[in-house]
Amino acid sequence: FFFGAAMPSIQSKLSNAQDCSHKIAWAGMAISDEELSCISGDEFKYNIMNQAKSKCESSCESEAYGRDSDTSSDSGSVEVEELPFVINEIITKYGLEYVKNSLLSEISDYVKAKITTEHLEEAFYVVDLGPVFRRWGTWMRLMPRVKPHYAVKCNPSPVILALLAALGTGFDCASSRELDLVASLGVDVSKRVIFANPCKLPGHIRYARQLGCNLSTFDTESELHKIKELFPESNLVLRIRADDPNARCQLGNKFGAESEDVAGLLQLAKNLSLTVVGISFHVGSGATDPLAFKEAIKSARVAWDEGLKLGFEFNLLDIGGGFCGEQDMDGLALAPVADAVNAALNEHFPPTMDCHIIAEPGRYFAEACATLVTNVYGRRQRKTVVDGESKVEMDYWISDGLYGSMNCLVYDHAVLSPKPLYMVPNANQNTYSSTLFGPTCDGLDCVVRDVDLPLMHNGDWVLFPCMGAYTMAAGSDFNGFNITQMKRYYVWSLDSGVDVDLGPGPDPGAGK
Question: CATH 3.20.20.10: does it fit domain 129-365?
């Protein structure tokens, strides 16, 4: 396989390295030994990073990465004989198909082939695990001190969960069902899961105790009393309020202890003989301001010191979610936030501290991996008069809508980007102001309004890229449309389709 994401700069590092054990080439990523040491992997069935390291060391004996010394192409791509074993295992187990890259043009070709060969009429998803894998690599390079715990609620696809589990991520669960999903993959919930719902149903607390998930969050007195009654031996994390006012979804209105309440909550936990092990926060889903993370980490240190005064032995900082899922498919939009996080951590929680740092990314991993494919099955032409001139507008009906995947318009403040896909060439290149309706009988079931689109006919399709986060997870079968059972085709893109020089990773022990 050829991975175009392996840039010449990385290839140069490999060919010039005196000691190949200090650089790992794996699917176009350069990961240093220092970053490797930050990956907690003792409990994993397969240590994928060591496999990658062995592959690199053996290949360097012949001074080439691949089968022999002439397998590197002039374009800077690197031939990889095979993916690491655990990745191949997932590809085989779940029947993933290969596509050349993750560009929409390549996904569109795959979609056309599926529609033709399987005679599809209903909406379906194409889920590309390649971007998930590459974003994991970007995360480990940019924030090696922070272990990701994937927010299951974002997209609970068992295939996505299986990949992330194989890569060694932890998981952020908010309900007994999510705990079940993760446990069913063989994940040790006592070591790799945080029950990060600050206000849990009593039955879910009992179930967490039964499974052995002994790490959870709280932010109120009532939650402490509930935990004292139902799971007194659990380890607790105090969630403090933190806000990015520009985040797509605000959470501070519902969760997080105010600064003036922190000392009282910690004192109550002490009085109840409960064990508090750290501090957490969440700046809001889809955050855009790196400074929000810096301020939140600063506030977390203040709360941390309050706990130390009371005699708690803190060892965990959870910096929550909010990491952007937009821009390029490899997750490099993470860089500005990573710079801010690393600098704040080095200032307030330096590497010399006994502090395990985790985060709860969901959108970052899932958003870019899925493309929703909808069928056009109805059309209406409308004539309007604007400033005395006659204008033609179009209405279309498509096979998914507001009650299905597009619930993200209401609950996640999403902005959708419809992309027409024609099964036969479209001779009419004119564009029309168009409205797309979902399939239900509710007049509110409108996906987009007044967007300029070329003329479409029944049997054409509309693609919606970047639909992996908070879409299918919150869909319903309202009006009898079986959206929750929508087909999903899983693929693995062999490269990102873009040339991005990843450059050197940050020094986790140095401020920026």
Answer: yes
